[in-house]
């Protein structure tokens, strides 16, 4: 069986595996045509496509506020930000396609509910302050996770991350600016920001994935250079970065156990509700159904357009062949 897998390229000989690991250890990027273990390819397809789906589904919570942004300027900024997220999804689908999977297969996995996307996008955006929280906390967490991915071992993914991170950094600032404007506003506006922070803080902390002890993929992904930090390491960095920002804004983080630890030079913080997290990623969060229905509707509504594009492509190909 193993010999057959080696012959078909599904598994490597021990020499191939060793040479591959050696490349990773020497920080040599793996490119699409290079030999790679089947597990490496599958792990990348899973992570990159889940990341792409997150960007696509991630347009929905903020998209909900485009028509209701409080000024023309905020509307224009939000529109541009949401379009950026669509662009990130498209780069990432392209990066996944270099691993031999088709965009149609990946789309089908999302629409059928088989593929995961980030837990965070299953929470509702109830007020304008939630849009600020998504930029400040969700994009903030996304950057913390994606900056190291710029150095991950797979070339197309690492290069896609460079542009994505530049744009996410603008997104984080625009979110922070929305929250700043609210806390500098009336008492009601400040209360609205505090209420949104109370609802978004823990889901943002959970975005980094389960605790290291329960993270099924971390050990192998770190060995392969697909992940450069563990979930808990990045979560801690995010908390350490965000607490002073909340203090500057005059907002209180909803965690009674949050305390500076002089010995560790880091913040101690409470335990997220992991039952809630696992429930959300199983499809039972507040908005899971709504999000999938919206993506399915967009796909169905776009059928006529895809058919038109295909008909146009076929016609132009025929014309080109006839002209040769
Ligand atoms: N949500 O073994 P691990 C953004 C799953 S982009 C849902 O630790 P891994 C931009 C995981 O898939 C946000 N599922 O997994 C934006 C696995 O299940 P599986 C997305 C999660 O892959 C901002 C199981 O739990 N970013 O926000 C989550 O080693 C604003 C065991 O977990 C990325 O995707 C979760 N949070 O580590 C857009 C970055 N966490 O597949 C719009 C790239 C874990 O075996 C507006 N991805 N699971 O069935 C990564 O870095 C990693 O995949 C982690 C998870 C760290 C997310």
Automatic annotation (TrEMBL):
Could you state a single Gene Ontology molecular function term?
A: phenylacetyl-CoA 1,2-epoxidase activity
Can you cite an annotated GO cellular component? Answer: cytosol
* Gene Ontology terms describing biological process: phenylacetate catabolic process
Q: Where is this region: Disordered?
A: 1-21
Pfam family, any one? PaaA_PaaC
Q: What is this protein called?
A: Ring-1,2-phenylacetyl-CoA epoxidase subunit PaaA
């Amino acid at each position: 069986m193993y010999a057959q897998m080696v012959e078909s390229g599904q598994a490597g000989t021990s020499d191939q595996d060793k040479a591959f690991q050696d490349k990773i250890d020497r920080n040599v990027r793996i490119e699409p045509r290079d030999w790679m273990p089947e597990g490496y390819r599958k792990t990348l397809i899973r992570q990159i496509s889940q990341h792409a789906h997150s960007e696509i589904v991630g347009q929905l919570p903020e998209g909900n506020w485009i028509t209701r942004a409080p000024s023309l300027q905020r509307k224009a900024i939000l529109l541009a930000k949401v379009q950026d997220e669509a662009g990130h999804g498209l780069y990432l689908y392209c990066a996944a396609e270099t691993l031999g999977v088709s965009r149609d297969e990946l789309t089908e996995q999302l629409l059928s509910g088989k593929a995961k996307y980030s837990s965070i996008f299953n929470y509702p955006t109830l007020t304008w302050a939630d849009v600020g929280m998504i930029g400040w906390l969700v994009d903030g967490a996304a950057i913390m996770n994606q900056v190291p991915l710029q150095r991950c071992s797979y070339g197309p993914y690492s290069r896609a991350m460079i542009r994505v991170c530049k744009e996410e950094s603008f997104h984080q600032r625009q979110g922070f600016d929305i929250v700043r404007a609210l806390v500098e506003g009336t008492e009601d506006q400040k209360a609205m920001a505090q209420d949104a922070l109370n609802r978004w803080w823990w889901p943002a902390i959970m975005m980094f994935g389960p605790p290291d002890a329960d993270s099924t993929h971390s050990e192998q992904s770190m060995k392969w250079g697909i992940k450069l930090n563990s979930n808990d390491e990045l979560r801690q960095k995010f908390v350490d970065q965000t607490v002073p920002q909340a203090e500057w804004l005059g907002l209180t983080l909803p965690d009674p156990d949050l305390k500076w630890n002089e010995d560790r030079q880091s913040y101690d913080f409470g335990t997220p509700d992991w039952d809630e997290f696992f429930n959300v990623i199983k499809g039972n969060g507040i908005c899971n159904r709504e999000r999938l229905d919206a993506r399915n509707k967009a796909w169905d509504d776009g059928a006529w357009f895809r058919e038109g594009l295909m008909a146009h492509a076929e016609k132009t190909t025929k014309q080109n062949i006839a002209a040769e």
